[in-house]
Amino acid sequence: AQKVTQAQTEISVVEKEDVTLDCVYETRDTTYYLFWYKQPPSGELVFLIRRNSFDEQNEISGRYSWNFQKSTSSFNFTITASQVVDSAVYFCALTLGDDKIIFGKGTRLHILP
Amino acid sequence: DAGVIQSPRHEVTEMGQEVTLRCKPISGHNSLFWYRQTMMRGLELLIYFNNNVPIDDSGMPEDRFSAKMPNASFSTLKIQPSEPRDSAVYFCASSLARLIPSEQYFGPGTRLTVT
Question: Is A50 on the interface with B (CB under 8 A)?
């Protein structure tokens, strides 16, 4: 079965701390894509990153970084030096084939000033 | 460029009434998705279209739900008759479908409350 698990329902950290959001997936496909989306308090989901199953290089974009490990079926997301504006719900997602994607339940991140 | 536009942003209706949610995808995008978000079930894909044709409606809860895409720039999701358990935030998203799965761009959502 295709599945995305975000075991951390809610995380609170103090501003400037680093925080890692976990994502574990299950798929029977050999080629697949993983995504991260951010849903700030305003409600709209914002695309952050897409990664294909053949590219295990870590990706860094400013304070954001992603660690993809096929061996453990994980695609974790780290925010370095967190800021209050990072407070949001973060979703990990996996392709189901065609253009369909399945979302995890999300991790609600609170950055405390 | 304008993003995905949804209307209305909020809808409060009484049980049994018909509800129509509207979506305008990003110009040039050829895939459109309708999602429902609730605390209990998270984000669920209801239906998606490619080039205005429904491709997969397996997520549509029951016959009370229907969706149309009469042209590339407009789609509707209709619930008739509505029930309190339909209360949720409904998102529309669009993408440019290519050989590889594309990122989806989401609208602001419609918060539906059925009393």
Answer: yes
